[in-house]
Amino acid sequence: MLPAMSRPDRERFLAEPRVGVLGVTDSRGGDRGPLIVPVWYSYEPGGEVVVETGRQTVKAQLLRAAGRFSLCAQDEGRPYRYVSVEGPVTAIDDPLDPALREALAHRYLDAEEARGYLAATSGQLTEDIAFRMRPQHWRSADFAAFAADFAEGGAGEETVPR
């Protein structure tokens, strides 16, 4: 069984600025798996996951068709941790609120980089929309306690034959 996080821990983890990986069913036919792409997102504990994308992108088309998506955020450093959420699209912000776009830029970039990014991509503001999702299903893992057992020379200690 995975060492799951408590509800407050997983919500705090998801609220931290991490690149998320969005997954949505690809309904275009054939033998396609789900569309899985890295995204910037926002989340406040108890709230909704918000993802921005272009109005005419494949991602937007698939999100509209599926009406739900998954998002996974992880910490690749040791000890490994992740939170995955899945749920229905609750709203589509169209047009996109400029304050949301600015908040996302400042979430992922330092102040100077965010200003430069927003200026360089200002034309996108009229093309972008945001999808909101209420997390319905959560999965999480925090291997800190598991890793501590190994660090202390516990069950994870390995004897190398000579």
State the domain count: 1
Mass-distribution shape: globular
Low-confidence stretches: 154-162
What's the average pLDDT?
Answer: 91
The number of helices is 5
The rounded Rg comes to: 19 Å
Largest sheet: 8 strands, antiparallel
Give the total of beta strands.
8
The termini sit apart by 33 Å
Pattern of helices and strands: HEEEEHEEHHEEH
Please report the first level of CATH classification, the CATH class.
Answer: Mainly Beta
Structural class: alpha+beta
Helix fraction by DSSP (H/I, runs of at least 4): 25-40%
GO molecular function, one term: oxidoreductase activity, acting on the CH-CH group of donors
Pfam families: Pyridox_ox_2
Organism: Streptomyces paromomycinus
InterPro entries: F420H2_bilvrd_red/Heme_oxyg, Pyridox_Oxase-rel, Split_barrel_FMN-bd
